[in-house]
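Box 3.1 A note on notation
Throughout this textbook, protein chains are presented in two layers. The first layer is the amino acid sequence; the second is a token string describing backbone geometry. Keep the layers aligned when reading.
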Amino acid sequence: MSKLWFFILLLSVTIAHLGAFMSIKTNSKAAFIKPDLKITKITLSSVVLKKDPPAPKIVPKPAPKIVPKPIPKLKKLAPLQELVLEPIPIKQETQDQETKQVPPKPTLAPKSVVDTSSVLDRYTSSVRALISQNLHYPSRAKRYRIQGVVDVSFTILKDGTITAIIVDKKSKNLLKKGALKTLRSLSFKPIPSELKQDTLEISIPIKFSIIGD
């Protein structure tokens, strides 16, 4: 504030000196011209300085006091009382029942294990025998004394029907025809239930030979 008052005072003095200097200069050049200068005095009382309102004081709020909750006291447990177990009287009947011997359970005899390999061998042997008994030897092959072995494979269905006949291509034609005719004319026994199969594939050789003249 003191600097502001000093500045205002210096400004008023400077203006006053400037006015006096201007009047002297104009009187020297033209004496007949009288300047009508009015110097206004600036008084400090005319200047009203507004003071900033004082800043409100911030009063800090007191921190809330934390009051610890009282810990509840644990109740003392009553001492454990000893339990005395009284023996339960057992009736004579229950004792007699326990002493009775329980008859052993009858043991089941183990089921006989079926040897499927032997069943299969017997069935295959019957197939071979049926083919040998009903072999169709072509008359032309007999006339020219054509002999040999024809390898065949086929499938027997559950009811004994034969299907899917395959003949070795390397065999002689007359003998192949005789083997096919033989297999197509046969019907085998049903497949044994012990094998538990719906189809059975068999591969055997069929022998064509002329015995005697």
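The two ends are 161 Å apart (CA to CA). Residues 74 and 80 are 17 Å apart (CA to CA).
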